[in-house]
Amino acid sequence: MASIKTIEELFVHELSDIYSAEKQLTRALPRLSRAASAEELSGAFQSHAEETQGQVERIDQVVEALQIRLKRMKCAAMEGLVEEGRDVIDSIAEGPLRDAALIAGAQKVEHYEIAAYGTLLALAKQLGYDDAIPLLKETLEEEKATDKKLTQLALQGGKNEEAAQATAKA
Ligand SMILES: [Fe+2]
Ligand SMILES: [Fe+2]
């Protein structure tokens, strides 16, 4: 079952994997947006859904530029991360605590994507895929910015939660 024997094939495999991951995310993010309580978090999920659509299109551009063919495959890791998001929604009532759990899940997603695009970028450099490099870089930067944004929202949410608890105790 050793179907990957070259760096070129590894690049196609990794790109096919993240393509599946991004597509799964375009379907999951609107649900996360609806499940979030804080308006800013809900908005962040919504705008990342739109950004993710653009990232899918960027992968199409890479495929076109390099004249490669993606493998039909399902990213099992993203399937699991999306499933965990569903579990959060099922097991935590709407509010700051659920928001904190949604952010935790979303940051796991972003870190997965950052690792994937970082690898793809390194492989593209190694292979001299010059047309792919700026496209992969652009998406990598978007994923990093999203991760940072989520960290900020988590800190903000933590403060809101503290305030709510202080009020409840008083
Ligand atoms: Fe993405
Ligand atoms: Fe992302």
Word description of this protein:
The protein is an all-alpha fold and 170 residues long. The chain has one domain: Ferritin (Up-down Bundle), CATH 1.20.1260.10. It is built from five helices and no strands. The chain has helices at 7-35, 39-66, 76-91, 96-127, 132-169. The mean pLDDT is 95. One fe (ii) ion binds next to helix 2.
Short description:
The chain is mainly α and 170 residues long.
Brief descriptors of the model:
170 residues, mainly alpha, Ferritin, 5 helices, elongated, binds fe (ii) ion
What topology does this entry show?
Blueprint: H1 7-35, H2 39-66, H3 76-91, H4 96-127, H5 132-169
Helix pairs in contact: 1-2, 1-3, 1-4, 2-5, 3-4, 4-5
Residues 22, 52, 55, 113, 143 line the site of one fe (ii) ion (FE2).
Strand content: under 5%
What is the chain-wise order of helices and strands?
Answer: HHHHH
Largest sheet: none
Q: What is the assigned CATH homologous superfamily? A: Ferritin, core subunit, four-helix bundle
Rounded mean pLDDT is 95
> Counting H and I runs of at least 4 residues, what is the number of helices?
5
Secondary structure category: mainly alpha
